[in-house]
User: What shape does this take?
Amino acid sequence: MSQTIIVDPVTRIEGHAKVLLDLDDGGKVKSAGLVVNELRGFERILVGMQAATMPAVTARICGVCPSAHAIAAAKAIDAATHAEVPVAGHLLRELLYMGHVIHSHAVHLFALAGPDLLFGVDSDPAKRNIVGIVEAHPVIAKKALRLRSLGQKINETLGGRGVHPVTVVAGGLSFVPTPERMASVTEMATEALALVQELAPPIIQALLALLEKSPQLAGIKQETAYLGTVRNGKLNLYDGTLRLVGADGKILKEFAAAAYAEHLVEHTYDWSYMKPVFAKVDGKEVVYRVGPLARVNLADGMETPLADAALTAFRAQWGRVVHVTALQEHARLIELLYACEKAVLLAKDPAARGNTLAPVTFTAGRGVAHVEAPRGTLLHDYQVDAAGVVRSANLIVATQHNYAAINRSLTQSAEALGVKGPADGNLLNGLEYTIRTYDPCLSCATHAVGRMPMQVSVRKDGVVLYDVRRDS
Amino acid sequence: MPVPGVLVVCVGNDLVADDGVGPAVYEHLRRRPQQDGVRLSLLGVGGLELLDELEGDALLIVVDAVLGGARPGTISVRRVQDDDLCRPPPTDAHAIGVLEALAVGRALFPGVMPREIVLVGVEGQRFGEVGPMTGAVAAAAERAAGVVADLCAEVRGRR
Assistant: This one.
């Protein structure tokens, strides 16, 4: 008789989620799926709004990656209106975005992955958190927080003070920064670059120690295809072409974001609101991943010297294409280094001075654009009418690209961990860890103060047999 | 040396039903006459960004939607105790929550921590969808802004 175990909700990721574990007659894991219960309907509310407001409105979708949405939307409306964004407009948007990436990757490495790296995935959940890190490693914590803060300040100095960037608009950037402002950004980027170089060795050391301590983690890998953005073959987070490589690293295709519908296909599950996306390759549907590991796997190299050297060392140690999920954090660190280097280059670039904004005139048309959000490829697709009103909108977020792979990883983790009954803390920890490595945003920024305990429900033929709860 | 002020931080997402009450309170407070020494900030999900706002204030007021089982729109005022920061809830659905951020601040940057922390909560009901706030929650936003203004005035009166 088959059984289903539900893990609900997952902690320290955006939104609420639960995991379904279907067991076979012998009590072994048959399949696993991350259930996203909540229907957000963000795309629906965009229809009927002025297209020019898309950068500001979509930035409010997510409290974690507002700049990624703002820039993807601005680029999509640029495309819909054929706006000729000045070079300085692009460069300053990219600089602002590097600030966001620095902030986001620093938070992830330090606050979200950090507890796993420094304490181990099996450690006491009450201590396996940011406060535990601060108590155990105050010096590293201070530096990591400073790095996060610098990224955020770069973002705010160019994007405007507050949660969401307000200067990112269709046509470019809505203001020209003063030389003093640019000098301040250069100073912050330079400090960030120095800090990340100090932080990288202990992070890598912690990751290696974790893999040694928990050898099963090295076995959690997914041999999938990978999707991400390259410009001239090098990893790029702001713009470029989408490249899909196979599990062996061979390039399967490269295409412009505007052609995504020809190469990617969205599906639906009857047990979840989230729509998984597959790549179309030779008439088959292929599971792929996006995000830092995907990006370092598919790029020929990095554009900046320190990050390129870090990638070379990474490949020398782990191989040309890396499938081990835990190494996502190492890939994130390489990108963090890149973002700091790139921020310094952009801040000093004379081409980033001068006019930043082109006039925008609406005619009926479609605009598709993308950006590499910290967690993976983010696509915005708008149909706009001649009055500049959005008639349809489709957003594909990183978690959708990864969804099929997340479910595969969960199945694999659950198989490895086994299901041992109602007090199975290891199963909870292991599945939580697996999901966190993908860093999924499930519902984008719902927030409420309140206890959200973990719950495991064991079902048999659709009927809950028992619950296991972790209330603190 | 400047007199320690009051920092009011509103948290939430105005697109997502009752999660919008923090931003709504923020808007009500913005429309009121500004009080001396009071800084007002809107912080989205209210994570580590909160640390950038701290300036050793006399009082920090955090305004947020809460899920405590009360009737929607119920306003609660809770003084955050040291114990709350010793053991922040490990199962917050967000990356880093307000209490976790404050716990980090207390451990690493004691010089900028506020002397007193108050959480003004507005009980919400719907958090799983895009759309307007529940009527009772929307109606509570202005009253919550009044509660915040009174708390600010109380601290100013003590100076």
